[in-house]
Amino acid sequence: MIKKQAIIFDMDGLIFDTEKVYHRANKEAAKTFGIPYNDEIFYRFIGSNYQDVINFYHQEFDSEFGEEQVNSFILEADRLVEEYFRAGLVETKPGLYELLDFLDQKEIPRIIASSSSAQIIELLLDRSDLKGKFQAFVSSDDVKRAKPDPEIFELASQKLGLAKEEILILEDSKNGILAANQAGIDVIMVPDIIEADDELRDLTEAVLLSLDDLVGLWAEK
């Protein structure tokens, strides 16, 4: 059913179970500095660029709490995220290693296109001994516009050096799926926190329960 020459992987919520860690760090930092961060904000920005989140915090909270206090909240949340990542509190998503082994056997190249910074991508890949499993990555540092803008996938496809119809994107978020569609690249959803609704199903080639379900789709050819 699926015949592609390369795969673009999202990272947060797809390769690593990071979203809950980000949420935990933000909640703890918000409590320290009295910022009314909540679940609604968390869900709103799943799959978004880091800078977009920072801009929102300042637009939403500066008038009441002051720019300095909001900056302190952001820096503390970032510090906690890195602390948790370095402590090994982030697990890989189910089926990841099985899928990567399969792609190795098929000699299918893969690249990461993530809204996270290059520093965070490097840290997580190093901590999980996954760096050699991906040929390259594109981070938020490399683009000006965040998902759902297609810029990050356009750049990733250029790095692969293949026609878009030869590439498959794996995503877990609505913003990522919208970006894939705007880039004109087929996408499969593996839901993390956000479940697939009818709109998202219509925009994807398939919705899978875990990453290794892709092996079955490839094996059916």
Could you walk me through the main structural features you see in this protein, from its secondary elements to its overall organization?
Helix 1 crosses helix 4 and helix 3 packs across helix 4. The protein has helices at 19-33, 39-44, 50-65, 67-86, 96-106, 118-127, 151-160, 174-183, 198-203, 213-219; strands spanning 6-9, 110-113, 136-138, 167-171, 186-189, 206-207. It is built from ten helices and six strands, in the order βαααααβαβαβαβαβα. The chain is 50% helix and 10% strand. The protein is globular, with a radius of gyration of 18 Å. The relative contact order is 0.19. It starts with 5 loop residues before the first strand and ends with a helix. With 221 residues, it is of the alpha/beta class. The chain has a six-stranded parallel β-sheet.
